[in-house]
Design goal:
The complex is a heterodimer of chains A (775) and B (243). Chain A is of the alpha+beta class. In chain A, 37% of the residues lie in helices and 23% in strands. Chain A contains 28 helices and 30 strands. In chain A, the strands form six sheets. Chain A has a seven-stranded mixed sheet. In chain A, β1 and β2 form a beta hairpin. Chain B is α/β, with parallel strands linked by helices. Chain B has a single domain, classed as Class I glutamine amidotransferase (GATase) domain (Rossmann fold), CATH 3.40.50. Chain B contains five helices and eleven strands, in the order βαββαβαββββαβββα. In chain B, the strands form two sheets. Chain B has a nine-stranded mixed sheet with strand order 2-1-3-4-11-10-9-6-7, sandwiched between helices. In chain B, α1 crosses α5. The longest helix of chain B is centred in the last third of the chain and has 13 residues. Chain B starts with a strand and ends with a helix. Classes of the chains: A alpha+beta (775), B alpha/beta (243). Chains A and B meet through α9 and α12 of A and α1 and β6 of B. Chain A: Monomer. Part of the FGAM synthase complex composed of 1 PurL, 1 PurQ and 2 PurS subunits. Chain A: It is found in: Cytoplasm. Chain A: It is an enzyme of class 6 (ligase).
């Protein structure tokens, strides 16, 4: 025995003796120095923990508070701003929300007794350190969030951002991330139905790997993470708990083991977790059977902060108390300390609250699926979270102080002085192509550029077919899955964000991200219903970054109110920067829409009907601030982003949904990065059908082809429906322009007075870029 | 009513799709999909068995290597040897090869990536229990999606398969043969490096068929690239009714 008189040495399965810092011991040794700074806690935060507990925390308690009060778990820098979402959500917007912010994921009612839940989360930093496992476990984590709502996960998609496509490190990061997403998601049996791949120098040292999952359930099957019912049992099930994913807590461990170098070698496992998609697949099926059998009172996934998070959140959401015997947790490493067990981020674990009489049935279902399940504790009415280790109490805390009452910061917010110069540097001075040959060359250069070229190299590594309900997937504007096979009811989901727009004007730029995701859902014929987000920003300690963040939140919340669709949940990722240089502010916005019958979805490609007229809906203005053209051709970022008009977006969506419902639209494609030229090329290539385009008289072909004005869509309408459709647009006040016809006999995109492109040439140019870089 | 069993191993993914394909083929009540559980040595009186795609037991060792030892597979092998029609799709094909019901093996794709794409196949043999609804030489479009899809066997085995007409499907590229439109040709290489462009084979009786592409994902143009895959499920119903 080397510790003080109150410590106890326990022989843990024959492993090295572990000194346990019990509550009793902590109370008796108030002066014992603790490495709270190394764990990321500030002096005042540590003092507050001591004040809450009336003594110093034990090692285990310190581990819990430090992870739960981290930026990632506590939202301490963003909380004051995120409140704005709640303040701007009207009762009308809440009408279809069954669960919202604060739950594992938001849930919306899509009709016919079906509910859908969806959420995006970031896994940025792990994916830079270890691209394959970082991205893989990002998928695993978001899928468990959805599962914890009682839903069957039905689709995933991944918004990704990388450094320059030709940078050496991108060759390391991108293939690993893509393989990780595919390796995990494909093995899990979830179709990957879309996402984004964007390249920009600002992401070179800090790629963004966001993961979205959609789940469906019957409305009555919604499960919330509540630990109600004193005497109910707490069951940990899924994978065993190991030393993976233990970040800062290894500081505690090495402190405990001070001087014992031989004991610390095992601590140096990578702090990025390792995923096992097979275990997760089995866990999904096991959970769904448990739900169906009515054996679950409350459930919580184990993600960031592991058991610390699951136990404190379950306890504080229920009757307020829980007792856990930590030595019952099945381990896969020897000699783990209580702090390590509480902080481990081992994947593929869930925690359920079960009535005592259902425990045997619960364990039987787990045994059927070969899932390890262990009763580790029970719900109490003490208002305390008590955790014991071989009979010694190592944690005794009010659970809300861990899970919900962490520190809240009002970080300084200041618009950067450099913003004015950025906005003043408009793209007007940039040389524009005008001669037909220049325009031709510009179009080819644009469609081959990394941000506009085909994503097939990436998406061909993802299974989009599994489960047999995928109606639309990349390169469609939105992914769409059928939810109900009888009625054909389904959902469409899109995520979007142009970080350059947000950099130029965070408020407008974020509304443009919302507008694009909303439009992408509407062009498939679905009605937008709900919003989620993943707000990726630099350091919150930089007032300029906090200004971007505040503006983005306000822009998104105000935009949602104007569109009448609620934000149901979200995620914040700060500290995305390299040295002092932050990434482009990247508030990824996801919009989910509902379609009552997926058979009337609008496809992207031309040629679905024999004779089609091409119409451009909306207005085209000379808007090149933050555009792909300025970026690709001139390497320029300056001026203001395109104007946003959400009333117009709403009108456009209504027209598209009406067009789909009445069979008036045979193809539709959103206009965004790359403008009309990009939309024409993609619609022609996807449909393998040519067209003839005639721009309006007097139009500047450069502006018409490449401007990125918002609120526009390219549609093909059957000639028989043309008059009815244009009359509807006129009656509703939506500007439209007839810009040509689809030609089923043609294998070319012909833009009159500009150029003609053979589809084969366009395809080779559009599809050649990523294979050339990454094969 | 014809009963077609669909096996679920831990890690099986396309069992719901295979069952749906059976239901579509037997829309008029002619067929029922019967779930079979890996741990039960019981085929529940089915008339045919589908071993569907996925990653059985995670496939961390070698695709299909563990699944072949599942209790249900002993029954499948026994029934197959007595003439019960068996179809192995993707992981199911790998499992049938591991079980010795079909020759050869499936290795990692030549490009080392998981490949998911709409793939044209040529039907080389329409005399099996699973392909009688197709014309010989027909070209069908079905999804291909796998990590380990490169069919290999020794030269003698390949020659035997060719000689006995036991190559059922071959990969063809989406371009007409010069001067032969609309016939598609084999192209320089198969999408995963499979020897002799082999996508699917049969045993000598024509009752056991394995293929890497996924006909069960091509039963409805709404959710697949075509409905070309439905023919396989209609074929086996014909074969069972005729028997």
């Amino acid at each position: 025995m080397t510790g003080g008189s109150k410590t106890k040495t326990i022989d843990n399965d024959g492993a090295a003796a572990v000194l346990v810092d019990s509550v009793e011991h902590a109370a008796a040794t108030p002066e014992h120095p603790q490495p709270y700074r190394e764990l990321g806690l500030k002096d005042d935060e540590y003092a507050r923990i001591r004040e809450i507990l009336g003594r110093r925390p034990t090692d285990a308690e310190l581990a819990m508070y430090s992870v739960m009060w981290s930026e990632h778990c506590s939202y301490k820098s963003s909380k004051v701003h995120l409140r704005y979402f709640g303040e701007t959500t009207t009762d009308e917007m809440k009408a279809k929300m069954l669960a919202g912010i604060g739950e594992n994921a938001g849930v919306v009612d899509i009709g016919d007794g079906w509910a859908v839940t969806f959420k995006v989360e970031s896994h940025n930093h792990p994916s830079y350190v270890e691209p394959y496992q970082g991205a893989a476990t990002g998928v695993g984590g978001i899928v468990r969030d959805i599962l914890a709502m009682g839903a069957r996960p039905v689709a995933v998609m991944d918004p990704l951002r990388f450094g320059p496509a030709d940078a050496p490190d991108t060759r390391r990061v991108l293939p690993g991330v893509v393989a990780g997403i595919g390796g995990y998601g494909n093995c899990l049996g979830l179709p990957n139905i879309g996402g984004e791949v964007v390249f920009d120098a600002s992401y070179a040292g800090n790629p963004l790997v966001n993961a979205l999952c959609v789940g469906s359930m019957r409305v009555e099957d919604l499960h919330l993470a509540h630990a109600s019912g004193t005497g109910n049992k707490v069951i940990l099930f899924g994978a065993r708990t190991g030393l993976d994913g233990i970040g800062g807590v290894s500081v505690l461990a090495s402190d405990t083991f001070s001087g014992d170098e031989s004991g610390t070698g095992r601590k140096k496992l990578p702090s990025v977790q390792v995923g096992d998609p097979f275990t997760e697949k089995v866990l999904i099926e096991c959970c769904l059977e448990l739900f169906r059998s009515g054996l679950v009172v409350g459930i919580q996934d184990l993600g960031g902060a592991g058991l610390s998070c699951a136990t404190s959140e379950l306890a504080s959401a229920g009757d307020g108390g829980m007792r856990v015997e930590l030595d019952r947790v099945p381990l896969r490493a020897e000699g783990m300390t209580p702090a390590e067990i509480l902080s481990s981020e081992s994947q593929e674990r869930m925690c359920a609250v079960v009535r005592p009489e259902d425990v045997d049935a619960f364990l039987r279902v787990c045994a059927k699926w070969d899932v390890t399940a262990t009763v580790i504790g029970e719900v109490t009415d003490t208002g305390r979270l008590e955790i014991t280790w071989h009979g010694e109490t190592v944690v005794d805390v009010p659970p809300r102080t861990v899970a919900h009452e962490g520190p809240v910061y009002e970080r300084p917010v200041e618009r950067p002085a450099s913003q004015d110069a950025l906005v003043a540097d408009t793209p007007d001075r940039l040389a524009r192509p005008s001669a037909p040959a220049e325009l031709r060359e510009t179009l080819l250069r644009m469609i081959a550029s990394p941000n506009l070229c085909s994503r097939r190299w990436v998406t061909d590594q993802y299974d989009r077919y599994v489960r047999g309900n995928t109606v639309l997937a990349q390169p469609a504007d939105s992914g769409m899955v059928r939810i109900d096979e009888e009625t054909g009811r389904g959902v469409a989901v899109s995520t979007d964000c142009n970080g350059r727009y947000v950099r130029l004007d965070p408020y407008t730029g974020t509304q443009l991200a919302l507008a694009e995701a909303y439009r992408n859902v509407a062009v498939t014929g679905a009605t937008p219903l709900a919003v989620t987000n993943c707000l990726n920003f630099g350091s919150p300690e930089d007032p300029g970054v906090m200004w971007q963040f505040e503006q983005a939140v306000r822009g998104l919340a105000d935009g949602c109110r104007e569109l009448g669709i609620p934000v149901t949940g979200g995620n914040v990722s700060f500290y995305n920067q390299t040295g002092d240089t932050a990434i482009l502010p990247t508030p990824v916005v996801g919009v989910l829409g509902v379609i009552d019958d997926v058979r009337r979805r609008i496809p992207t490609g031309f040629g679905a009907e024999a004779g089609e007229t091409l119409l451009l809906l909306g207005e085209t203005r000379d808007e090149f601030g933050g555009s792909e053209w300025a970026h690709v051709v001139h390497g320029h970022l300056g001026g203001l982003p395109p104007r946003v008009d959400l009333a117009r977006e709403r009108l456009l969506a209504e027209v598209l949904v009406a067009g789909s419902r009445d069979g008036m639209v045979s193809a539709a494609h959103d206009l965004s990065e790359g403008g009309l030229a990009q939309a024409l090329v993609e619609a022609a290539l996807v449909g393998q059908t040519g067209c003839r385009v005639v721009l309006p008289e007097g139009a500047d072909p450069f502006v018409w082809l490449f401007s990125e004005s918002a609120g526009r869509a390219l549609v093909a309408v059957p000639r028989t429906e043309e008059l009815r459709f244009t009359d509807m647009c006129t009656a509703r006040g939506l500007p439209w322009t007839r810009i040509g016809v689809v030609d089923p006999e043609s294998r070319a995109l012909e833009i009159q007075d500009v150029a003609t492109f053979e589809l084969d040439e366009l395809r080779d140019t559009w599809e050649g870029t990523l294979p050339a870089l990454f094969d | 009513m014809t009963r077609i069993g669909v096996i679920t191993f831990p890690g099986t993914l396309d069992d719901v799709d295979a069952a749906r394909a059976v239901r579509h083929a037997g829309r008029d009540g002619a067929a029922e999909a019967v779930p079979l559980w890996h741990a039960d040595a019981d085929l529940r009186g089915v008339d045919a068995v589908i071993v569907p795609g996925g990653f059985s037991y995670g496939d961390y060792l070698r695709a299909g290597a563990i699944a072949r030892f599942a209790p249900v597979m002993g029954e499948v092998v026994r029934a197959a040897r007595q003439g019960m029609p068996v179809l192995g799709i993707c992981n199911g094909f790998q499992i049938l090869c591991e079980s010795g019901l079909l020759p050869g093996a499936l290795l990692r794709n030549a490009g080392l990536h998981f490949v998911c794409r709409d793939q044209w196949l040529r039907v080389e043999n329409n005399e099996t229990a699973w392909t009688s609804r197709y014309e010989r030489g027909a070209e069908i479009l079905v999804p291909l999606k796998n990590m380990e899809g490169r069919y290999v066997a020794d030269a003698a085995t390949l020659d035997e398969l060719e000689g006995e007409g036991r190559v059922v499907f071959r990969y063809v590229v989406d371009e007409p043969e010069p001067g032969q439109a609309p016939k598609r040709h084999l192209g320089a290489d198969s999408p995963n490096g499979a020897l002799r462009h082999i996508a699917g084979i049969t045993d000598p009786t024509g009752r056991i068929v394995g293929l890497m592409p996924h006909p069960e994902h091509a039963i409805d143009a709404l959710t697949g690239p075509s409905d070309d895959g439905l023919g396989m499920f209609l074929s086996v119903l014909d074969a069972l009714v005729a028997a």
